[in-house]
Write a structure and sequence with these properties.
alpha+beta, five-stranded mixed β-sheet, eight-stranded mixed β-sheet, 17% strand, 35 helices
Length: 950
């Protein structure tokens, strides 16, 4: 029987039958899994306790088939909470992982660390998370998903459902380019035979594909022996396989489909033998594999003094591949001399090649060849780069569809040029507008236009054009990395790239003695200069400007500045209730009195419209007003000083292009002696000695440094989450950094090892909380954190992930400890349900009347919004009752995300005695291992008089 897709039309958003409800599914993967040679190798699900998950309001069902485990709920947050509470017991065969490895690979896997590692950030390649929907209606199965493998998906859906192909309808979702093959099967599996539709989003537990190479012993000066001695491992499953759902359910005989890299000089990478292999879409895996292996091949050629082109021509066995390499080399003038150095600018040229085979059920495999030659310019002083020229060749056994309008050469060249810029986070289109990464430095090219693109196109024998599909882009990243290495001697091993990675590499390669000497003198000069300037009680005014020419600001700079403003919560603090954005007037309560925020719109009289960039930068880095007076440190200039020059300039561009608002905020009137602004000079002398931008740590990864930069500069997390001394400054010392503090009458909990969370924060939990405002194992964002999360939702996903990655490094969780979190959570939930002693407390009736309808784990109806577990809530386990009182008193009227739902406050329906009874009850029931809170009566009275945080 031939298999074909009956309906693969494009749909922006699936329309479900009018009588069909939508459920959300979350899949729980095994702690260890692998799939090789048609066999599942991994953990076997022995038992699963579903009771804790089924007690979560909104959870409809738990799906358990073989090693497949999933949770269905009315809302995604409820499904996530249910999945977190499943107590699944897995057993991993001791020899399962090693049995899949040849002897040499098993030996290589035992080596630590690898000789070289490469990383591909798939989240940057596909900024939108893959998703799929499925609906079984009137004996018809409808699936909405984007995938390059619809024919294979149809075969699996037929095997799953037993339906003929004409009763299965696939719709391609045009708004999402990430491959959702696995999501489609997950959604179909959980929706089949069910009256409700199911939506599944891809798991974000893995944001990058990592390949490690182990170099065995080889004859010196023998490239072939050198390449054959390399053993590769990766952290993902093979791209040529059935769906994960089919593998875990134990379905047999399904064809493997997908894109495979056909290397002529390296063995195929195998999944890690000592941990869980993540899933990834075949396109991203192919990108990662070509990037890693072509970079490693170039490195080997450099070490042996070989020409990369001649070495490839010697090792590539395919005639099509050799011919393509020769044509690309000829058109790119590969053998020609590079331009001479121009000051700090270095020129480099790189080459990369790919050969892939796409396996399609019922059809002949499609082969593709692609080759790229890239010319780059690298500024060795700034650590920045630009692409000058691309030469791209492509060959394929696939011919263009004659019914489809072929892509014109200019359009193809434009697409490839944009892809190359996107790899540098310099894309001028949609992706680049939201990348949040530095633009090209003007030292190289002020116009920063697109590179010159040359196409080496080959016609089929019958004269019909060959199909130029996504495979043409595969060698791009490796060619760029090889060109950068050729120009600078710096080997970039993580892609897509950014300028920070190049700058970090330059720092890492600087000699230790030189670095220490320069750092010592630089620090001495900085301290001396800072001490002198900070000690001045009054600083000279910077002359106002009559007109700021905003026409010089590019759209890209303005958009980048908008993201910096969002990361810094500028609008949150500089907008009064009911006021115009950024017009100031919001009163900030401090231990020293109320400080009113200023107008930062470009109004010339009441705002910053007459401020030059020099005046703006001085205020941001040193806390000095344009007129020379000191700003109060409630404005976190100690953190904003760490913002990079590029981000600072972009922020200025953004603010100066906004609508001016004429509004004079109330005057700040602090009691004596805090009203003496010159005294702030002494405060700066003590606590703000380094007004310089953040300097990346070359010993850490690019992602870690990006997270550290965002957290400690524009994000100013320590301003709330670090304790302060009697003078209002953040306490110094590593133990105090992000060790918890108070802001706006709310506790900002510790983010380091002092965290009181009952379940330790993992990187994934931190990401989910920062991105959505909700963590199933910790709670929802409320109070001052709500607007922060709302702002982070607009930042690129890679930035939020970088912040989570950095914060998790302050209190790391071991993998073996993380695997026990579900059991810990289930135990805490069970204890809260079975605690008989609290049932006689006066707060029991109050809880049942005010809280149980949403929060009682013993059961209850399903209402709108997330239903955070109180047994896992970090606030109830804290030493301080402030946040719990704030929420009970004032509610959550503006949740970080609309889907989380709001919560009413009980300020007007409970008196102080009732509130105290309820707090004592909740503490005893949901945090029974913690001592009772003290001083509740005074706390309740104080917080009742406060306005509350909207």
């Amino acid at each position: 029987m031939s298999h074909s897709v009956q309906d693969f039309s494009r749909a922006l958003w699936p329309e479900l039958p009018s009588d069909t409800r939508l459920l959300h599914g979350v899949v729980v993967r095994p702690p260890y899994w692998s799939y090789e040679n048609g066999q599942y190798l991994g953990a076997e699900l022995q038992t699963v306790d579903k009771q804790a998950a089924l007690h979560v309001p909104g959870v409809v069902d738990c799906v358990h088939i073989g090693n497949y485990l999933g949770v269905l709920a009315v809302q995604a947050e409820q499904a996530q909470q249910g999945a977190a509470l499943l107590d699944a017991r897995w057993v991993t065969p001791v020899a399962a992982s090693q049995a899949a490895l040849p002897a040499d690979d098993a030996r290589a896997s035992a080596l630590s660390p690898p000789d070289q590692g490469y990383e591909w950030q798939s989240a940057l390649e596909h900024p939108h998370t893959a998703w799929a929907r499925a609906c079984y209606h009137n004996k018809q199965l409808f699936v909405w998903a984007h995938t390059r493998r619809p024919a294979a998906l149809l075969i699996e859906l037929q095997a799953l459902s037993g339906l003929p192909s004409e009763q299965i309808h696939l719709h391609d979702t045009a708004d999402n380019q990430a491959d959702a093959y696995d999501c489609a099967m997950d959604a179909a599996l959980m929706a089949f035979g069910r009256p409700q539709a199911v939506q599944v989003r891809a798991s974000q537990s893995e944001t990058s594909i990592r390949l490690s190479v182990y170099q065995g012993a080889a004859e010196p000066n023998d490239l072939t022996a050198h390449l054959q001695a390399c053993r590769w491992q990766l952290n993902t499953l093979s791209g040529v396989r059935p769906s994960l759902a089919a593998i875990l359910c134990g379905q047999q005989g399904l064809p493997s489909s997908g894109l495979a890299v056909q290397s002529d000089y390296f063995s195929a990478p195998l999944p890690n033998s000592d941990g869980a292999a993540a899933s990834s879409d075949p396109d991203s895996l192919a990108q990662a594999t070509v990037f890693a292996q072509e970079s490693q091949f170039d490195q080997a050629c450099h070490q042996l003094g070989l020409d990369p082109l001649e070495a490839r021509l010697e090792h590539v066995r395919s005639p099509q591949g050799r011919e393509l390499l020769q044509r690309v080399a000829q058109q790119s003038d590969w053998s020609g001399p590079l331009p001479a150095h121009q000051g700090p600018i270095r020129k480099g040229r790189g080459l990369a090649y790919s050969h892939t085979v796409e396996h399609i059920p019922g059809q002949a495999a499609r082969e593709q060849w692609s080759a790229w030659a890239v010319d780059v310019s690298v500024d060795t002083h700034q650590g920045t780069l630009s692409i000058d020229r691309l030469t791209v060749g492509h060959d394929s056994t696939e011919q263009d569809n004659p019914e489809r309008v072929p892509e014109s050469a200019p359009a193809l060249a434009d697409r490839l040029g944009r892809w190359a810029q996107q790899l540098l986070n310099q894309d001028l289109g949609k992706s680049g507008a939201h990348s949040g990464k530095p633009p090209v430095t003007e030292a190289i090219d002020k116009s920063a236009g697109k590179p010159t693109v040359q196409l080496v196109k080959r016609e089929a024998a019958v004269g019909q054009p060959l199909a130029w599909n996504q495979g043409v882009e595969l060698p791009a990243a490796a060619a760029i990395a090889n060109a950068i290495f050729n120009a600078s001697g710096i080997r970039l091993t993580s892609a897509p790239f950014n300028e920070q990675s190049l700058a970090l590499a330059y720092q890492a390669t600087t000699s230790a003695s030189s670095k220490k000497r320069k750092a010592w003198w630089g620090a001495l000069a900085a301290v001396a200069t800072g001490t002198i300037l900070s000690a001045l009680p009054w600083r000279p005014a910077i002359a106002p400007v009559g007109h700021v020419d905003t026409s010089i600001f590019s759209e890209r700079a303005i958009e980048r500045g908008r993201l910096v403003a969002i990361a810094g919560d500028c609008m949150v603090c500089h907008t009064a209730e009911g006021g115009k954005p950024n017009a100031g007037g919001l009163g900030l309560e401090t231990p020293f009195g109320t400080i009113y925020t200023t107008n930062i719109t470009p109004d010339k009289e009441t705002g910053i419209g007459s401020w030059s960039y020099k005046a703006f930068e001085r205020a941001m880095r040193e806390g000095i007003h344009q007129d020379g007076r000191h700003l109060y440190p409630a404005f976190p200039y100690t953190a904003f000083a760490k913002i990079s020059d590029e981000d600072m300039q972009s922020l200025y561009a953004y603010l100066m292009t906004q609508e001016p608002v004429k509004a004079k905020p109330p005057e700040t009137k602090l009691p004596f002696p805090m009203n003496m602004r010159p005294l702030v000079a002494g405060w700066n002398l003590l606590f703000h000695r380094d007004p310089n931008a953040y300097v990346p740590d070359p010993t850490q990864t690019v992602q870690w440094n990006r997270g550290a930069y965002l957290v400690n500069s524009s994000g100013h997390c320590a301003a709330c989450h670090s304790p302060r001394n009697m003078l209002g400054a953040e306490k110094s010392g590593e133990a105090n950094f992000l060790a918890g503090g108070f802001a706006d009458n709310w506790e900002a909990p510790a983010l380091n090892s002092l965290s009181k969370a009952p379940i330790p924060w993992t990187e994934q939990e931190l990401y989910q909380y920062l991105r959505t405002g909700y963590s199933p194992r910790h709670g929802v964002a409320a109070g001052p954190m709500g607007p922060v999360v709302a702002g982070l939702a607009e930042l690129p996903e890679s930035d939020v992930r970088a912040m989570a990655h950095y914060l998790s490094s302050l209190n790391p969780v071991a993998p073996e400890q993380e695997q026990t979190h579900a059991a810990q959570a289930a135990l805490l939930e069970q204890n809260s349900r079975s605690n008989q002693e609290v049932m006689v407390m006066p707060g029991e009736n109050l809880f049942n009347g005010a809280c149980a309808v949403c929060h009682d784990p013993r059961g209850g109806p399903v209402l709108f919004g997330a239903r955070p577990s109180l047994a896992l809530n970090s606030n109830l386990h804290s030493e301080h009752p402030d946040n719990t009182i704030q929420v009970l008193m004032h509610g959550i009227t503006r949740p970080a995300q609309p889907t989380l739902g709001s919560m009413p406050g009980f300020k007007n329906s409970m008196n102080d005695e009732q509130m105290e009874d309820l707090l004592n009850y909740m503490r005893a029931r949901f945090a029974p291992d913690k001592p009772a809170w003290t001083g509740l009566k005074d706390k309740i009275a104080t917080i009742r008089e406060q306005k509350g945080h909207l």
